[in-house]
Amino acid sequence: MFSRLASRQLAASRAASRTLASPSASWNRGMKVLAILYRGGEAAKQEPRLLGTVENELGLRSWLESQGHEFIVSDDKEGPNSVLSQHIKDAEVVITTPFHPGYLTKDLIDTAKNLKVCVTAGVGSDHVDLNAAVDRKIQVLEVTGSNVTSVAEHVVMTILLLVRNFVPAHEMIERGDWMVSDIARNAFDLEGKVVGTIGAGRIGYRVLERLMPFDTKEHLYYDYAALPQEAEKKVRARRVEDLKEMVSQCDVVTVNAPLHEGTKGLVNADLLKHFKKGAWLVNTARGAICDKDAVAAALKSGQLTGYGGDVWNVQPAPKDHVWRTMKNSLGAGNGMVPHYSGTTLDAQARYAAGTRSILENYFKGQAQNPANIIVGVGKYESKAYGQR
Ligand code: NAD
Question: In the CATH hierarchy, which fold is given to the domain comprising 32-144+344-380?
């Protein structure tokens, strides 16, 4: 794929060669590695490729133990008596996954006297207080790129299922009913629509690439980093520097930026007023980028026709979370699922292998792949988490 990512990675690589030899790990020293993963239950026993689960432990246990390291794995992450709170006190490495995030707040990081590295098994490290990690010289590494295609496919699917009014059509069939007009009254083609992405990095760009065969009218993007002209041309993308102006032109808006100080609550009641009336909004980036209640209200009022995605402001989402059941005035427009777009079995194989490779580098004191470094020793290495 042509991308500005290559030049970004080159710049990062130069910086990395100056700063990123692993700071203090010594080969073969027994250390405590703590992993917070999601519980896989029966499915994980039956399907060993569910690597990102408590049961299958990213495939790391025998390898880590053969080197004398202690490996604690749990899904217990809430409250002062949780496995996370107890074991983080002396763990040197913490692995967590965005699908069941161990929230590493500043308070928790303050108790982690021995912590040197946080690894995200996946992409998106907002569950770590990154500023606190910078201050404490804790590295934050993720398996960059490991699931970006998985997510881009999910975004395209969700755009289609909302625009074409798929979910209520399927539910009608399961109920035993058949009333074509009830579905068709709110079903459209994607062809000829304007699609805009907030964030045009690895996922946002791949979404636009995958939309090309649908003969959409135009692709817009809002990102503080401009794409190279050739990359823009390839996906017929036009950069709009004002977010309100961009959303006012879009039939479909998709959110593909990381969660940080500059994106938390970015899609709020004020911004939603600027959306084209009846637009569709898809967010697989992070739930907290969209204001929960403002989105539900916009769907109810008809300002949005549909909202879909897989990310929630708190995960697991509480049973009464309004996004589970919110609907538009026609009783449709909800494309929400649990957080799984980036944890397909294909993605799990990639992020499990990537996690192992990050650990190997750390244990051996070798440089990390620069693209994987969100926070290096004492400073941000990635530009994706806000302009600093
Ligand atoms: P990336 O770093 O390649 O791209 C992110 C882009 O967002 C960058 O171009 C950056 O400049 C831009 N950006 C940052 N702040 C912005 C802002 N305020 N406004 C507009 N653009 C902004 O990251 P990626 O691999 O494309 O992933 C993006 C995010 O998607 C991740 O951080 C993660 O939160 C989420 N994600 C979700 C899943 C899932 O399973 N649902 C899986 C992977 C990633």
Answer: Rossmann fold (3.40.50)
